[in-house]
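Before drawing any conclusions, I needed to go through one protein's amino acid sequence and its backbone structure tokens, quoted below without any editing.
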Amino acid sequence: MSLLLGQSVRDGCPLASITVVLSGLLVLMGALGCQATAPRPSIDDTRLGLMAPVDESESIGEAAAARPTPRPGPWRLAVLYRPQADDPGPSAHQHRVWREAFRESERIGEVVLVSDFLSPPAEDADLRALRLAAARLQADAVLLYSSAVSSATSQNLAAFAYLTGFGLFFFRGTDVDVAFVQKGALIDTRTGYLYFLADAEARVSGSGPLLVLDEQEVIDRANEVTLEKFARKIAQLIEESPDLRLVKE
């Protein structure tokens, strides 16, 4: 390196030589796959709050008097995704995930997803309207759930290779951290009885070159991971709930 710099100074081009040397060091650092990274950015957990649906026409006495509906056979469960402000939307794999979660269930015989066509607009979606959408599908209970997401992007030490230009396409100098949460409630379609509340959270990270890394792909992966955890938890709670026992006729 000293020989190269000395030759460049004699040739009157020290700046060009220094640039070449620094570029070489940056490329070498990226090629070695530098693993040292900057501290992970903090996730703004305050953005992960979700609002539960309510029935504004229901009195306190009616809510307290609600009871589960006895069923002699397996239940038909409606799953209704309830969008909220800045909502990431349901997972593209939700049909598969929910059906697999209840594949071996003794209490749930069928799972149906309530389509947007049947569910009321978000601004009109109080609890009674959501139960009505499930009733139209002859569902015994409706699972209402929502999602929230928070993400942060940072650069690790390999990002120095971005100074070479082509490093923007080849070196994994950018990190994306995603926190994803899903919360839901299982409600009796006929009576409005609340069986239980549940939630699940997952944090997923991804890294890649700045101009190649797709943050949305990391968010979608976090969505699917969280939904799988959430669905397993719901299935377990249903099997364990005393209010959901099948009643012999």
Q: What stands out?
A: The radius of gyration is 27 Å. Residues 37 and 156 are 4 Å apart (CA to CA).
